[in-house]
Amino acid sequence: MSRLKLVTSFISLCFAWVFVDSAQAAQFSSIVIDATTGRTLHQYRANQQRYPASLAKMMTLYMMFEEIEQGRMKPDTKIRVSRKAARQPPSKLRLRSRSTISARDAMHALIVKSANDVAYAVAEHIAGSEAKFARRMTGKARQLGLYDTRFTNASGLYHWRQQTTARDMARLAALLLERFPHFETVWRLREFDYSGKTYISHNRLLNRLYGAMGMKTGYIRASGYNLATAVQRDGKRVIVIVLGSDSPQSRDRRVTALAERSLLRAQTMKEVTLSDAQRQRAAAWLNRPASTLTAKSEQADSEQSWKIQVGAFAASNHAQSQLKRVRRVLGTHLEMAKESTEPIEKNGKRIYRARFANLSEPQAFELCDKLRDVTPNCLPIGP
Predict the structure, then answer these.
(1) pTM for this prediction
(2) Exposed/middle/buried for 72, CB within 10 Å: 0-12, 13-18, 19+?
(3) 85-133 per-position pLDDT tens digit
(4) Could you give the angle at which helices 130-143 and 116-127 cross, rounded to 10 degrees?
(5) 224 in a structural domain
(6) What is the DSSP string of 203-223?
(7) Could you tell me the residue range of the domain that residue 126 belongs to?
(8) Residue 302: left (phi > 0), alpha (psi -120 to 50), or beta?
(9) Backbone dihedral region for residue 237 (phi beyond 0: left; psi -120 to 50: alpha; all else: beta)
(10) How many CB atoms are closer than 10 A to CB 305?
(11) Number of folded domains in the chain?
């Protein structure tokens, strides 16, 4: 075969590979299950093989949670960063080779930043190598009944053999919440600070969908845009999985529509009460007082422990002006709310957060919806 024919064949194969991946990503899959009964409330191509992307990190976190429960990992456990870990492609914290990161920061980085360098370091810490860890992940998947899932790495980066289904991801999400209820608050993290920098969650539904509990987003070119989340309202909880959307916006719209429709058919869940030991363990990993932690099912929707943030400013008087402006717009809707400007240090600078407190969760989301035209960055903030 001539050199020209060889080059032509290679280019054709490359285009074919891109076309197949793009075609797979365009055909999204979805499923909704009732977290209380396990009943399927919606499914569309739920058993189709797909690339999990960063949803694979849900299994990485499952393995990490087991290490914690078995006493082999503490919040201040130092996780060493190898040269291979430091060389992982983005998304990442850009950790340096031979540095260390605490297990607490690693957990937060996996959920909020979806950091691939952290995932690799965690895998090496637990199993000695990422390859061994991936085999453990697949073995754990079989134990949990995820028979259509195979893992080849801890991060979800592309590998042709690393595939799953929407149904398997729904089961994994449900088991994470069922077996580790004291870590529910971790999934709802909107940001975390590390090495003088603040990282914001990729999951925009945390601020837009009332009752959303976060969990995991994911994207690689071969997978499209993925999302696994739990949504809870009025004592009902559903698990929503969408894999392969063509944009973050279409993915979020699908998840929102599926959640709204499915919650009407879900059954009321049983109350989960955390033990003192579970509260203490979760508090240590969140670096928060144990008294502030509850399972989502323990919280009443009417509990007045939510806030909204309507802006962050370099000057206190600007924050005060924003609070007055918002109060004029919302009027009686803020009659019982308490306003405050909270100074904090962010990335070496002092900023002032303009906030209204003493709200319930439904009120917080409703007020932010009303303020979209006034301040599009309104954030509901949970306890």
Answers:
(1) 0.80
(2) exposed
(3) 999 999 999 999 999 999 999 999 999 999 999 999 999 999 999 999 9
(4) 80
(5) yes
(6) -GGGGTSTTB---EEEEETTT
(7) 24-263
(8) alpha
(9) beta
(10) 17
(11) 2
